Amino acid sequence: MSQNKEKVESELFQMYQDAIDMLEDDQIKEGVAILKKLMNHPSIINQEDKKILYGIYMSLAEILAQSENVFEKCEALNYYYQSSLIVENCWQTYRKMSLLFRQLGMMPRALNLNLKALQYCTSCILTQPLLYQACCISFLMNSWDEFNQYFKMMKDDTNLKSSIKELYNYHLTKQITPFVNNLLEEYNQIDQKLQSLPENQIYYLLQEQQFEQEIYLDTQNIKRFFKDIKCLLQINLNFRKNPSNYIISSTKIVVTSNQNKQKKLNVQKEQSIQTFKQIEKQKSKQSQYQQQFNLDQIIYNTNSKLIDLIKSNYNWDMVSFSIINNNTKTQNEQNENQGCSISKFLSERLINQSFLTVIELLKKLIILILKDFLSQKLTIQNFNFVSKGLINCVVWAQYCTNKLVDDPFLKLQLLEIAFNELKSRFKEKKPKSPEEQNKIKNYIIFINNMKLELLQTDISNILTNKNQIKEYLQKYSIIMANIHSDIHFFQPKLAKYFANQLENPKLKQQINEKIIAYKIESELKTSKQVLQIITQWEEREQKLEDNEKMRTYIKQVIEYLKSNKNNSILKRLSIICLNQFYFAYHLEDLKEIQKFVQPLIFQILDIKNYDIDIGFIFLKFSFIYSLIEIDSSEILAKFTEIFLNSTKTLNKYLILLEILKINHFKYNEYFTYVNIDTILIEFIEIKIISKQKYNQLVEYLKNNIEADLELNYYLLHLLELKIQHTPQFIVQPNTLTIEIDKFETKLPQPDSFSDASEDELEEPCYYSNQFKNIGLVENQIESSFRITKKLCQFSNKTVEFLINHSVQINVGDPKIINHIKRFAKECIKCEFGMSTNELSTQLYQILIQKYYLQAEFKKDLTKIELQFLGYYLPHCIKSTSDFKQINEFLLNNVNPALNKQNEQEIIQFVDELESYIFDNNETTQSFQLKEHYNKIKDQKIESDYKTNLFYLLQKAELILDEQCKSSHFKNFLFALAYKDSLFLWNEFYITLFDQARNYLSQKKKSEINWFICQQRLQLIIQNYPDLNFLEEYFIIMDLLQLLEQQHLYQTTISSIKFNQIQEGYEKLFMKKQIIPTKVFDIKNNFRLLQLQEKVIMRQYYKINIENITQNLENLQTLISLIKQMNNHQIQYFLHSKEGEVEIEQDILISIYKFIKRFLKHQLHNQLNQLIEIIKIKLPNLLNQSQSQFQFQFEHDKKQFKIQNIDEVQLEQERNTIYSNQDVNLILNNILEGFIKNKKRLIKKKPQRYLIESFYYSTHLLFHSNASIDQVFNSIQPVYLPNSKDLIYYYKSIDRYKCEKDEILSYYYFHDLNFSYQKSKILKLIIKILLKQKKYKEIISLLDKLNKTYDLRLFQAIIGLLTSIQYIDEKILIRDIIIKVEFLGKTNEFLKDEQIIELLNGMYIKLYEKEQQEQGLNDFEIEISQIKIEKGKKIIEDFKIIKKKPTKFKENQQISQQQQSQIQQSQIQNQQQQQLYQLSSEQINEEIGQFKTQEGSLSPLIDLDIV
Predict the structure, then answer these.
(1) How far apart (Å, rounded) are the C-alpha atoms in residues 484 and 482?
(2) How many Å apart are CA 1320 and CA 1478, to the nearest integer?
(3) What is the rounded distance in angstroms from the CA atom of residue 774 to the CA atom of residue 876?
(4) Distance CA 1094, CA 1086 (A)
(5) Helices (H) and strands (E) in the chain, counts
(6) Are strands 253-257 and 214-217 parallel, antiparallel or unpaired?
(7) Strand pairing class (724-725; 1292-1293)
(8) Alpha carbons 987 and 1012: distance in angstroms, whole number
(9) Minimal CA–CA distance to 387: which of 244, 568, 235?
(10) Which of 49, 129, 206, 769 has the highest count of CB atoms within 10 angstroms of its CB?
(11) Which keywords are on file for this protein (predicted)?
(12) Could you give the dihedral angle defined by the CA atoms of residues 1154, 1156, 1161 and 1164, in that order, rounded to the nearest 10 degrees?
């Protein structure tokens, strides 16, 4: 047998050795498996010295401790612990266990074991690392007293102490070093580590070491505090013959706080298993009563969010509260494990206090709980389990002292609490263990002793105040009546036995006599009867029946409660009513029970009380009513009233929000019982507080981005992993490249938060250059991190990139600012439970939509309601599409109520500002804005919510009434009066800008000059530097106004009008802004810079050659800036992908216009200077290969255009010789540039600038020696003769905008400009058609030109009528006359004398052709007037014939004849093509120079030069 045992042990040892070898050879998995197998072998377990078992435990512990897996670390701790049972007091084992606990985040346990290692370590040298470890853990626990203790014990002049000194300095000065930073990171990860701990494996690890001299008061577990006190009393009672002496002389009690965050989490985890068992036990208990119909589960499923909120904020378990027979024990047990206001109250007054004996501590507790706390009238929903803990200590302390308190009121309270606890123990109908019998015996002894003591007390010797004596006797009588009336409740034999001890007849008689002596017999009798009724109803089997006796009892109880405020009885009665519903087995049963219970409930509602527990019972009634679809408005209102008077909590508004979501209650009914203002105030307060915190946080984050690690982590997710210089980031590689070790992570990458804004009115946000460093160090980049509630980690790729690159972020970039706001919003959401946007959406759905927007809502809005709507409606509007309903509510309900509250100073502000902006009087004085705002600020009448409402009213009015008047902007002015807001000034200007744009395009002008209005507003806005970006709108409006004047100039060409236009351009020219060379120096004014170089410089005639030179340089700088925008991925300054090509074309257009101007006005000297500039700055325009065409321009005789040049200079200019060859060469190269851009046209995406290339290329060809067909072919792709638009030039095609930049589209696609550009192209086409002699095509255009292009219609008719000498076809002449007569009926300008004179010539020509066809020559001797009349007669006869009905055959013949004539005409046109070419110059000269004297009409005005 012995040999066999030795053989087995030898084999086992060999297996152990093999396993160790595997571990050394990195065969970890196999080695661990063998060791675990050996560990459970009986021979190894039963070995006397357990050497192999110890070795197995240590080997497994060492291997598993190296793992990153939390489960394996916990397993390693288990093996270390098992080894410590074999080899006791091994300091190295304790040290290793301490390190593991630290890695798991369990700092108290880590410190405990580290101190244990320090205790058993005998080497002086090795104690230093242990002290170092103790200091680090104390730092992580935020326990500076312990830190200082171990810090002083360390030896000086060591590297370890110098490191610890860094922690000490941090505590004093907040100086952060790399070592401190590492520990701070570890501190931030403790929560995460604790949350990852496996509860089922580490229960034993969470046991705290008890210190006799200390009692821990943890606000999250006050039950343990009382248990520790009771244990001290029991220990002394069991082990000392004279416990009283021991307690008094041998024990010093110190109350110590468990505020350390890690300790709290440990305690919670320690209790999790117990809590789980309790919940399971409770579920099992409930199932005994309701296996088929679980009312609480149905209630919870329907109202889970509200129930959970109440539980987390008020420690009140809604589900388990109303179990049948008033069994609230489970609820109390659960509450005992949670924090409450009493425990916090005790913590504030007891922490770090010491008491010589536990009795002294108990005396202090009685006063604090029963006197001080209750006197503050704080919420007492957790009072039951706290008083239970106290009385458990008191009944044990009675064996140590018979004098805990002197105050008779406190004695009464202790007696009442003790009896209630005794009664609750008897209610548990289960066999009583000897231990439980002993506890009951303790209570009975205490109650009898206290009754005797109170009976023997002469209250008049203690209390002198008669009112106090009366109050005492009333309480005394009620408590005594309660005790003696409830004796019958103790049903079991054991209970009867103990009850008999309480039913001491002699004692009872003495008490009754004492009560009678104080003349309160009647109160006692009534109290006794009521308590008997209540106790009887609380029987488990008791279901209330609707009968006369029951109604009598109910009436008696209610009458008693009305005259005696007794929350305890009221609460018991409420629960009895609630418990009736638990006899239901189906939903239908609930309706029957409700019919019986409802009258009693409403009688309870009439009794005034403010006990939150009773309020929650009412809430549960509401839940049940909603299940059976019965209105519970009054009950819910009662709860709301009680709830609103309870202690404030941060999440109170969330509970109110969920209350309003309860189904099947009527809002109108509900708000008749509860003042809606009291509810809305909660939402208003939370909005104001959260908005203030949000604004402060956003401002802080903008200014301290480098200091906030969470924000740094969040913003880095926006970064593209590449070297870059964008508006958001500057990324540069570091000098040294660092390689990282690859790692695996299952944690998610950071992602963008929702972009839903917290702002009611979004302040304008434009780009600024404010780059700041992101300074994450290497370990911060590699480690996991938390962004608000989400745990994240960067990927390997991201980590490697960030470590090897420096990153700067621009906090002035709108995208970054937007994400900072998103981050701040998420932080506020974590603190307050939901974001403002989410809260607003829910309030809109459950309150605004269902109450305020209902048709039956008629009442006047209160100030609080206006405030609520002002804060939340702006958010609601963002998330709803029902604008019509909201707008009607605003105008019909909000507007009248709001205007009643306007202060006089506000009204004055509005009146004066309205007068200043909208008065048509040009001499209106300036508006003193600053003075007005100072007055408003001094009087403290600024108001955010009124501003919001007036702004919403303004939007509503603009939507419902498009015919704007000055009075329609009054709401805007009120909004601005109540708040000096950049958003509102911006919105106000843009609104007036739109009005002015519409005003400029209208033929019928409104009473208000909107252009002047927006100009006056510009003067105010110039006081706000942050609104400088509006300057782009200013210049657009000025240019549009000048365009309007140019339209007038087209119809009345005069030097006066021309000079007025030039004066306008001169003012704009004088405001020219300097163009920066670097894109990041642009001040949100790039469009302004573009327009000043493209438009102003082309239209302003007084510029000199230096200005032109600068213009060309500036345009090249704009190209450079656009290139930089593309390189840096910037779109804020110009939303155009082809801006570079467009500006290059703009250079060509500018040069062409300047050359044409110089040639037409014979400014040859300036032309030569320009050519020299081109040779230097744009040598590519003198490319010799491009010399195909010769160009020639007619002389412009309108001298007023160059009136800034005197006669002498003008003569010199004309006499100067210029190089026609250079001019032709430059123009040919410009033409080539236009032609090149024409090829970029995509029919479905016709960019605006490409249409310009068609116009200018054709314009150049028209003034060249190119054939007229070649000229026509150049413009033909954008000429649509069969469409009503005529020109292929649109603002958008489908969803594609032809001008990408929205702001520039205000200028380019304004009706004045848009029609002007199309009109220019049409003018050119008409000139080409006339030159081609395509008269019939021109006739077909006349109807389409009518109304849309009046000026072009006039010019086309002039062109046709002046071409009379080239038209020989009688039918064509007749068609021209008929068309002109027809159009003349509806167009007054066609009745002009010039038209009539030309038309008379046509009549003459028609008559002569008619005579020639008939072979008559008499017309040669007739006078012109007779010819005109006869020509008119021919037209009239033709019209009469045309109106007469004809046969189908005749019609067909006429049709065929006309077709033949058209074909013949086309053949003739083809044959005469060369003739057109030869005579084109002559025709053009005759048409172009028709009556161009000042003030007269010109048929084809060259619009380009204006």
Answers:
(1) 6
(2) 25
(3) 37
(4) 12
(5) 70, 13
(6) parallel
(7) unpaired
(8) 17
(9) 568
(10) 206
(11) Coiled coil
(12) 70
Whole-structure pTM over 0.70, yes or no? no
pLDDT at residue 1453 is higher than 70: no
Cα angle 783, 785, 789 (rounded to 5 degrees) comes to 160
Token reading at 367: 């006063």
CB atoms inside a 10 Å sphere around CB 842: 17
Residues 981-1006 have a mean pLDDT of 87
1372 φ, ψ to 5°?
-65, -40
* Rounded (10°) angle between helices 1350-1362 and 1311-1332: 10
Token pair, residue 420, equals 């209630």
Q: Which long-range contacts (CB under 8 A, 24 or more apart) does 74-83 make?
A: 74/104, 74/197, 74/198, 74/201, 74/202, 74/205, 75/201, 76/100, 77/101, 77/104, 77/202, 77/205, 78/201, 78/204, 81/204, 82/57, 83/54, 83/57, 83/58
Residue 7 three-state SS: helix
Q: Give one DSSP letter per residue of 1417-1448, joined into a string.
A: -GGGGS-HHHHHHHHHHHHHHHHHHHHS---H
How far from 1500 is each of 204, 1050, 1317, 1351, CA to CA, in Å?
Answer: 101, 10, 15, 9
Residue 502: helix, strand or coil by DSSP? helix
> What pLDDT digit, counting tens, does each position of 288-321 carry?
444 457 888 888 888 888 888 888 887 777 655 5
**Separation CA 727–CA 1089 (nearest Å):** 20
Task: For the beta carbon of residue 897, count every other beta carbon within 10 angstroms.
Answer: 17
Are 1486 and 1362 in contact, with CB atoms under 8 Å apart? yes
Q: What is the 3-state secondary structure (H, E, C) of 63-113?
A: HHHCCCCHHHHHHHHHHHHHHHHHCCCCHHHHHHHHHHHHHHCCHHHHHHH
Mean pLDDT within 349-360 = 76
Contact between 776 and 806 under an 8 Å Cβ cutoff? The reply is no
**CA dihedral (1028, 1029, 1033, 1039) positive or negative:** positive
For residues 906 and 914, give the distance between their C-alpha atoms in angstroms, rounded to a whole number.
12
Given a contact cutoff of 8 angstroms between Cβ atoms, the answer to whether 318 and 620 are in contact is yes
Could you tell me the CA-to-CA distances from 930 to 925, 927, 980, 1016 in Å, in that order? 15, 9, 10, 16
DSSP labels, 1025-1050: GGGGGGHHHHHHHHHHHHHHHHHHHH
- Find out whether 285 and 330 touch, Cβ atoms under 8 Å: yes
Picking from 1231, 1311, 1306, the residue whose alpha carbon sits closest to that of residue 1274 is 1231
Q: Where are the alpha helices (DSSP H) in 141-250?
A: 144-153, 159-173, 178-188, 190-195, 222-239, 243-250
Q: What is the DSSP letter of 600?
A: H
CA triplet 588, 589, 592: central angle to 5 degrees?
100
Q: Which of 598, 538, 528 is nearest to 564 (CA)?
A: 528
Taking a C-beta distance cutoff of 8 angstroms, is the pair 576, 613 a contact? no
φ/ψ of 1478, rounded to 5, equals -70, -35
- Concatenate the DSSP letters of all residues of 622-676 into one string: HHHHHHTT---HHHHHHHHHHHHTS---TTHHHHHHHHTT-SS--HHHHHHHS-H
pLDDT confidence band for 461 (50 / 70 / 90): confident
C-alpha 96, offset from chain centre: 48
Give CA–CA dist 683/704, Å, rounded: 31
On whether the CB atoms of residues 39 and 60 are closer than 8 A, the answer is yes
Q: Where are the beta strands (DSSP E) in 456-604?
A: none
Beta-carbon contacts of residue 19 (< 8 Å; ≥ 6 apart): 30, 31, 32, 34, 35, 38, 59
For the chain, what's the residue count? 1506
| Mean pLDDT of the chain, nearest integer | 80
CATH of 2-198, one of 1.10.860.10, 1.10.540.10, 2.170.190.11, 1.25.40.10: 1.25.40.10
How confident is the model over 201-251, as pLDDT tens digits? 554 444 332 333 467 777 667 777 888 787 777 655 543 333 333 333 334
Phi-psi region of 630 (alpha: psi -120 to 50; beta: other; left: phi over 0): beta
